[in-house]
Design brief:
The complex is a heterodimer. By secondary structure, chain A is an all-beta fold. Chain A has strands at 2-5, 9-10, 16-22, 31-37, 44-50, 55-57, 65-70, 75-80, 89-101, 104-113, 117-121. In chain A, the strands form 2 sheets. In chain A, strands 2, 4, 5, 6, 9, 10 and 11 form a 7-stranded mixed β-sheet that branches. Chain A has a 4-stranded antiparallel β-sheet with strand order 1-3-8-7, with no helix packed on it. In chain A, a hairpin with a 4-residue loop joins strand 5 and strand 6. Chain B is mostly beta strands. Chain B is built from no helices and 10 strands. Chain B has strands spanning 4-7, 10-12, 19-25, 33-38, 45-49, 53-54, 62-67, 70-75, 84-90, 102-105. In chain B, strand 4 and strand 5 (45-49) form a beta hairpin. The chains are: A mainly beta, B mainly beta.
Chain lengths: 123, 106
């Protein structure tokens, strides 16, 4: 089970911070991802992280985005700086399956989602 | 980066109809494609991965096919609970982008 937490309202130019708490299993396996959905629009992949801290980010957000993981707390987090109204969305945290090949892990499909949390950017 | 497109963007069908949705990648992605269903107001749900493998618990009326650049999601006999938006997602390499979605209604 995954649960997002964080402020529902963020001022323009400030930093959006969300945390996802993973229960019923260790975070030290799988990849973990953030996905967002602006009101009335489609899904946008934000980025992912694995248990060792290896990350991949959406190029459109690179430079503003940091995803981190805390294995001891079974949590991973999102920080998005310099937000504008276009960052208003439902933010989902989710679990990503993985494959293993030649000593490396590769992300696969998203197989478990949090309930999502609406973050509004407004003054 | 690879771009994902879906067609049609929306469709209307009747109960019992066969429904087909297409997803296309701008470059080959092997079979690294998943399909998700998002019912109105709900969280997305995984239907199919590896282009054609049905996720556990998903009804067998859903099927997927394709590889490379062209993929298809088929609902063999549309049911009322299938009213939803369907998204494809590639995962051969980052960024793991989603298609724009196809809305299915009755």
């Amino acid at each position: 089970r995954l649960q997002e937490s964080g402020p529902g309202l963020v001022r323009p130019s400030e930093t959006l911070s969300l945390t996802c708490t993973v229960s019923n299993g260790p975070i030290s396996t799988y990849f973990w991802t953030w996905i967002r959905q602006p009101p009335g629009k489609g899904l946008e992949w934000i980025g992912h992280i694995n248990h060792s801290g290896r990350t991949a980010y959406n190029p459109s957000l690179r430079g503003r985005l940091t995803i981190s993981i805390d294995n001891s707390k079974n949590q991973f987090s999102l920080k998005l700086t310099s937000v504008t109204a276009t960052d208003t969305a439902v933010y989902y945290c989710a679990r990503v399956g993985f494959s293993y090949d030649s000593g490396s892990y590769f992300p696969q499909q998203v197989d478990s989602w949090g309930e999502g949390t609406l973050v509004t950017v407004s003054s | 980066d690879i771009q994902m497109t879906q067609s049609p963007s929306s469709l209307s069908a009747s109960i019992g109809d066969r429904v087909t949705i297409t997803c296309r990648a701008s470059q080959g992605i092997g079979n690294y494609l998943a399909w998700y269903q998002q019912r109105p107001g709900k969280v997305p749900k995984l239907l199919i991965y590896a282009a054609s493998t049905l996720q556990s618990g998903v009804p067998s009326r859903f099927s997927g096919s394709g590889s490379g650049t062209d993929f298809t999601l088929t609902i063999s006999s549309l049911q009322p609970e299938d009213v939803a938006t369907y998204y494809c997602q590639k995962y051969n390499s980052a960024p793991l982008i989603f298609g724009p979605g196809t809305t299915v209604d009755l």
